[in-house]
């Protein structure tokens, strides 16, 4: 039995009211955390930005949370860093929430029950979202930019898409994996524009610093990027295969070889899925491939932090969209369909398994790694024959 429009509207109002209450509570908790003596992660962003504009190496700022992002972040955050501390906290929180909402909009468009999908995705990853918001992390901003990149490709707005991807990479290097996507898709124009925009954007900090940023880039590469080829051990919340490979190797050479093998294997798997979903040349952009590349970036990142799992949001949202919720059926009707459909049973089981593994990652050895792998193969082996243009990223 289908719900009436008035029922949908009433349910949406209830969901929005509860969501607003939860966000208000999270904002209060964020402010409390930000005003601790050591501050929180966003405090280090602000201090690094101020150091940059005072001609000091932002990577040597004395904070409890080291600044480990490209210098472009210091340029972009300058207006926020000039605000009073309280105002910057609230504004950054609002921008993060807006970025999350924008990501869901780009992924789901105006599909039925879009709000329900977003809420369910958020609930399944509530620990991850709470971690990002309470610590003032930058991941939700980067996620929205990458979603905008795919939405732009869907519209054929290549210049806009590549600018958003460039900005995402300049903020956090993780989305650089989408360069592989453009190569496989043979989007040579988009690839060329991305490389040109990247060169221009990374040059901005050098220009505004009078050239001294060259030294800071060198410090960043030497003390952060290259140092990630070794790790002291493998913790339960880790999901990075490259970090695991580095942790079990006995020599620097063995670490590099092991990490290179992992990169080759993961990229091969994702490229195979991209070809399987026919996301090549002039074919429609696939949201499944978008989600797969983000999951692959988690496996390849040399650092595993719980807040990075925000990049699993598109995969979770995509699977929820395939759980027979979008037609507005009652729970009993939905259950009857699930019992008759093996694909739906597999998706429900994989989604619940992944959510539980992420939730209890610290008590389950390799829990986050297993969760990411479950999501990757669940999305990858979803029935691509049901993937139609209406399921692709919407024209916005």
Question: Please, could you describe this protein's structure?
Answer:
- Helix 5 (85-108) runs parallel beside helix 8 (139-155) and helix 9 (158-171) crosses helix 11 (188-208).
- This protein has helices at 5-34, 41-53, 72-76, 78-81, 85-108, 114-124, 126-135, 139-155, 158-171, 178-185, 188-208, 213-225, 241-248, 252-276, 287-300, 313-321, 331-340, 342-359, 367-380.
- The chain is built from 19 helices and no strands.
- It is an all-alpha fold and 396 residues long.
- The two termini are 31 Å apart.
- The longest helix has 30 residues, at 5-34.
Keywords:
mainly alpha, disordered C terminus
Give the CA-CA distance, first to last residue: 31 Å
Arithmetic mean pLDDT: 80
Give the C-alpha Rg.
Answer: 21 Å
What percentage of amino acids are in beta strands?
under 5%
Q: Give the structural class.
A: mainly alpha
How many beta-strand runs?
A: 0
Written as H for each helix and E for each strand, in order along the chain, the element string is HHHHHHHHHHHHHHHHHHH
Any idea what the shape is? globular
Please describe the biggest sheet, giving its number of strands, its sense, and whether it closes into a barrel: none
Q: Low-confidence segments, ≥5 residues, pLDDT <50?
A: 326-332, 385-396
Number of helices: 19
Helix content: 55-70%
List the helices and strands and how they pair.
Elements lengths: L4 H30 L6 H13 L18 H5 L1 H4 L3 H24 L5 H11 L1 H10 L3 H17 L2 H14 L6 H8 L2 H21 L4 H13 L15 H8 L3 H25 L10 H14 L12 H9 L9 H10 L1 H18 L7 H14 L16
